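subagent[fold] <- orchestrator: predict structure for attached chain, return tokens only, no commentary.
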Amino acid sequence: MRQPKHLEVVPRDAAAQFWAELSDEAARAAVAEPDLASLLNAVVLKHDGLCSALSYQLARKLGDQELRAMSVREVCDDAFAADPGIAAAAEADLRAVFERDPACKGFLQPFLFFKGYLAVQTHRVAHQLWTEGRDTLALYLQSRASELFQVDIHPAARIGSGVFFDHGTGIVIGETAVVGDDVSMLHGVTLGGTGAQRGDRHPKIGKGVLLGAGAKVLGNIEIGDYAKIASGSVVLKPVPAGCTAAGVPARLVACPTCPEPARTMDHTLAEAVYDYVI
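subagent[fold] -> orchestrator:
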């Protein structure tokens, strides 16, 4: 199974073009909805790039009486400076939402409103803190993200780029879990353990995997690249690359499955037979 690749920095011209597109969306939205012009200016239009805007947006969401928004913003800025790849991943995640969610009309919507996207970006900051040994602050951000977005990701978990958490509500990802690049998962997904044992105990999700709503993948098992886990399934054994697993407990129902399921968001089961009553 591929591990998440090192997050590469987006070329300056590509990053600038992306930011121009996002800013243009915000400008048009401010004209269309004058009541939100102040918000759009504060969150997007007054900034000169994605890093600045994202740190402001996360601070606005995560700040509370214990950790003020200005402090959160400083933490985010430090994380982005320590690992410029975080910004590249944040951009790739926005592109993934736009490409895979038919309800998404552009980059602005997920940046402002989609809690799955915001939860992942909070995790990226928390993970950077975790790698620096700042466990308590990392766990604090995890707790705030869980309270605000209903997404609970342990800061030690490793998540690749271009990921899409659709809806987000109820997603739980354990400490030793690994989520590869270009993965899509829906609400209610759990990447958990099977008991109280310590050590490496959580799933390893390959590149381009699609995890349907309510899917539970439990234990230190591998889900191969471009596999598909059907909604509501409970997976306790490894799933080979390119296969579909479904059921409780899950069994293999299609090998190979559709190509790039996480990108197409194809939740159908290829061999299913439907009886129609007319």
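orchestrator: received. Logging for downstream: DSSP finds nine helices and 15 strands in the chain. Residues 12-32 form the longest helix (21 residues).
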